[in-house]
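Thread amino acids onto this structure.
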């Protein structure tokens, strides 16, 4: 009985850790994104602090399932600004807006601080069998610069290392539970 009381919190911790691991599963796949076959535009086209932007995604293909994942990042690879009126989730420590595949616009408001000169917008198209990425820079006084859509590994590596930590934590707990119950 005492062993069960001791193990109950550990089992709960393992359950919570396992759920956290499955929540970031989709984020880990973003590192495998290919060059997007769609376009992204912003209105206005130059960066300013504390301004709301209309982000428009143009894709001539007819997708029946999937979603768009939108991220706005500083040059330090941290989330900046706020996505409005659409759900957001934490994806490998990056605030990620989730836009239904049937929608093609989203509103993003830049941060009030004026110390940023540019913001990188990432738009992922997550389909059942493929993930595509378009990346561009919104520059102060310059307009939009389209960049090659090479995913930044920093956020993916953080998620992978935390998953390995969780797996290493769960294995001894599972072995201890099996030993005490037998």
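Threaded sequence (182 positions):
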């Amino acid at each position: 009985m005492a062993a069960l009381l001791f193990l109950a919190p550990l089992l709960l911790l393992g359950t919570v850790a396992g759920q956290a691991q499955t929540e970031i599963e989709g984020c880990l796949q973003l590192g495998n994104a290919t060059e997007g076959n769609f376009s992204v535009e912003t209105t206005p086209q130059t960066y300013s602090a504390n301004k709301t932007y209309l982000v428009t995604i143009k894709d001539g293909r007819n997708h029946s399932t999937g979603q768009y994942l939108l991220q706005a990042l500083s040059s330090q690879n941290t989330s900046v600004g706020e996505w409005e009126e659409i759900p957001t989730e934490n994806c490998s420590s990056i605030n990620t807006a989730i836009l239904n595949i049937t929608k093609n616009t989203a509103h993003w408001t830049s941060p009030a601080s004026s110390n940023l000169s540019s913001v990188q917008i990432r738009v992922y198209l997550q389909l059942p069998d493929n993930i595509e990425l378009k990346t561009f820079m919104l520059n102060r006084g310059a307009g939009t610069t389209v960049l090659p859509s090479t995913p930044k590994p920093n956020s993916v590596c953080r998620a992978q290392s935390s998953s390995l930590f969780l797996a290493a934590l769960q294995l001894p707990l599972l072995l201890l539970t099996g030993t005490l119950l037998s």
